[in-house]
Amino acid sequence: xxxxxxxxxxxxxxxxxxxxxxxxxxxxxxxxxxxxxxxxxxxxxxxxxxxxxxxxxxxxxxxxxxxxxxxxxxxxxxxxxxxxxxxxxxxxxxxxxxxxxxxxxxxxxxxxxxxxxxxx
Amino acid sequence: xxxxxxxxxxxxxxxxxxxxxxxxxxxxxxxxxxxxxxxxxxxxxxxxxxxxxxxxxxxxxxxxxxxxxxxxxxxxxxxxxxxxxxxxxxxxxxxxxxxxxxxxxxxxxxxxxxxxxxxxxxxxxxxxxxxxxxxxxxxxxxxxxxxxxxxxxxxxxxxxxxxxxxxxxxxxxxxxxxxxxxxxxxxxxxxxxxxxxxxxxxxxxx
Lengths: 120, 206
What we know:
heterodimer; A: alpha/beta; Rossmann fold; 5-stranded parallel beta sheet; 48% helix; globular; B: alpha+beta; Chemotaxis protein chec; 7 helices
């Protein structure tokens, strides 16, 4: 069985695109969430091996969700996903403990590389 | 060159830089070659802008994004309903024609295109002019073009008598998909745009 991944993005098509890439590369997608609040709750229930986490989302954004996930589990592996070259937000995420980041529109190879590196 | 002329020039330069970045981003997102042309960048009376789009019975699907920060803008991307299905297939690397109805993924495709394009424009403002902005989560709409324009652009314009409008036309070459993108500066952005005029990056365009 592949490593367990949780995908968090408010756009269903992005979740599907990421899922297609991950499943094709042997990972198991155990959950999909559409906002940060759902992501935190689902993480606590499922404790996936890794989370892909969009930054800009309604209700609770990715930075806040990242902080809460890491408060719950300091060893959580989180790869941030952003459409904006938000250096401040990304630096904040890395300082909080995010493992890596992917910029949209993403290439399959970059997604796989970021996930593989984070899970090492 | 008068201040008004310089401001218009600034708008056009921002529009062209935005379009160059948006073109590359859009092509990468849909994994197909796309060209984007700046159709018009102009200041117009509110009533004139309204006349441009009222009465049309073309149904479109649009993504609307507020760009907030130092220089507030409104961003609108729209495409015809049938073409939105083709864009969905392109993004998902499916055979074009697979998506046959405007489902959750078709709606999300337009939403995400709007999100990514608006973000690309925010990056232009930040990278080239040091103007900090942030896109809000996009809203998706499906309606007649006049209604979409009225609902999202005109309402954002508020009490303005005039609007700067930057209209771009996309063409996804292989599939003849036509999309439109509007960027409209809002009250509060003109002071920051004046700062853009003084930017070293701008002087080469005078």
